[in-house]
Amino acid sequence: MSNSKKVTPDDLKYKDRGIVKWLGMMLSDHSEALKKESQDSRKREVKAKAEMTDTEISNILFQSFTYHYPVRIQANILKNGYYYQDLKCKVSGYADNRIYLQLKDGRSVNCMIEEIRNAEIMRVEEWYEGE
Q1: Which helix (H) or strand (E) holds 124?
Q2: Which of 20, 50, 55, 125 is at a distance of 20 to 30 A from 113, taking alpha carbons?
Q3: Does residue 33 or residue 47 have the better pLDDT?
Q4: Do 113 and 69 share a structural domain?
Q5: What region does 109 belong to: left with phi over 0, alpha with psi -120 to 50, or beta?
Q6: What pLDDT, in 10s, does the model give residues 93-130?
Q7: What is the four-CA torsion angle of 49, 57, 119, 51, rounded to 10 degrees?
Q8: Distance from C-alpha of 82 to C-alpha of 47, rounded to nearest angstrom
């Protein structure tokens, strides 16, 4: 199934030069935008990592919580046959069967251990590098 997106001249930052038939003028810009969107989509096609046991995941998350290590988590959820991008976070707590995570951008989220497919400790330097 293909996702379609409506693109207007304003979306492409097309500068109107007073030409009535602007659609023909912006065709190359539109084609370039579609090509970039296709490339971005391929970058999001994440392959499955090895599925870990709850005990293995718990050990990684415990280390993250205890030593403030950043972790990379792959959710056990598929979208269009692919997994979501890994979640870069730190474990900030655990309560009522929920694991509380602090994301790189400062937001907080929570999940259950059953929703995690794979977890790994990140290099500390990678946490502070740009996306």
Answers
A1: helix 124-128
A2: 125
A3: 47
A4: yes
A5: beta
A6: 999 889 999 998 889 999 999 999 999 999 988 888 86
A7: 10
A8: 6
Same domain, 32 and 62: no
Q: What is the CATH number of the domain that holds 62?
A: 2.30.30.180
Yes or no: say if 40 and 5 are a contact pair by the CB < 8 Å rule. no
Q: Which residue from 103, 101, 86, 90 is spatially nearest to 43, judged by alpha carbons?
A: 86
Of all residues in the chain, the percent with pLDDT exceeding 70 is: 72
Number of structural domains the chain divides into? 2
Both 28 and 92 in a single domain?
Answer: no
Residue 48 lies in a domain: no
Q: Which domain holds residue 76?
A: 54-128
Phi-psi region of 14 (alpha: psi -120 to 50; beta: other; left: phi over 0): beta
- The rounded distance, in Å, linking the Cα atoms of 30 and 28 is 5
Banded pLDDT at 70 (limits 50, 70, 90): very high
Q: Note whether 26 and 63 are same-domain residues.
A: no
> What is the pTM assigned to this prediction?
0.64
- Pair 8, 60 in one domain: no
Please tell me the predicted confidence (pLDDT) of residue 78. 87
